[in-house]
């Protein structure tokens, strides 16, 4: 279902000198969303132009709203030669379609050029009239929030933790296409920059769909990574923990919960409570960088091994396990499975901790990307567990498909669950993944 996006370009300041004869700039702006482009008038001979343009209107679907960034390009007008690029601005519109978010934003955005860095600022106004697609077969996940924090955000109450979520997307690297040999370095950099933004939006959309299928409305402990594999392509992957969060306002009101999740007291996470029983875990996690990392493959390397690693701490079970128990035959206490036997299958309802928080605990030994938990969930820390694997990128039969890489990561995760079982634990917390490519 189409939504309306309105954009207005007001002014710019501190632009660089583009005309050496007058030491000034004849600037104009291009606004692009999807395949539709609008332009402002040319403001002549000014380093601080004021356009105060009309409203530029765009119509986009939910899926495009999540994946396509709004692009604003500032250009210098030339009568004879081609117009010179000053810089660009990429704006993610997804935060404007959240339930509690304002549907309009106005402010100064830095103008960035991939060759020269920051080249001034531009004043932009954006309005979004969001019409959510309620079709059950829709491919958008607008409204799902993503948090990279190691714990539940302070302004929210956690009603349920619904399990581990992961996704992986593969695409060709623009710098290894034939057209890259004839285009300018700036065009090559911008092609990669735009691809990163689109892949990131597609990844969040897919993970958001999985969160909605699990009856969640948020992803906490979200970690996104870009693997630059050279000629094999670009891999963007992400992991997180699905949760159902409710905004905690000064005067709390009743929050409607999805079918199957019932209201239960949810204690707020305080520094004192969070540190109880988690000191060792926090020591292991100290120094982790929540921002996205780039793993770069050196060009020209004849053999390209991919080293994947994962680590986490273990939440110990109260029931001891024997060596004859298998991962598939063990179900944590209190879980009812599809066949009603209490082992195998998928849990119908989340478990409830002593503090009232409910969390999913299926027989697969769940992986949680959070490091700090509300009181009553962590009973004991069993220890640190880690595993790694070495793969050759040259051995991928079809580099454009994600199946091979998915199999690699599933192998790593299953080994982590096997370690959890061997140590008598029923969950892995503080879970993270990393790669090294050379």
What's this, in brief?
This protein has helices spanning 62-67, 185-213, 271-275, 279-285, 403-422; strands spanning 3-13, 27-33, 36-39, 56-60, 70-76, 84-91, 104-113, 117-129, 145-146, 156-171, 218-228, 234-247, 294-296, 305-316, 351-352, 358-359, 381-392, 425-437. It is of the alpha+beta class and 438 residues long.
What can you tell me about this protein's structure?
With 438 residues, the protein is an alpha+beta fold. The chain has five helices and 18 strands. The strands form four sheets. Strands 9, 10, 11, 12, 13, 15 and 16 form a seven-stranded mixed beta sheet that branches. A hairpin with a 3-residue loop joins strand 7 (104-113) and strand 8 (117-129). The protein is globular, with a radius of gyration of 25 Å. It starts with a strand and ends with a strand. Mean pLDDT is 77; it is low at 262-303 and 316-355.
Radius of gyration: 25 Å
- The computed structural class is alpha+beta
Largest sheet: 7 strands, mixed
Counted by DSSP, the helix tally is 5
* End-to-end separation: 44 Å
Mean pLDDT: 77
Strand content: 25-35%
Number of beta-strand segments: 18
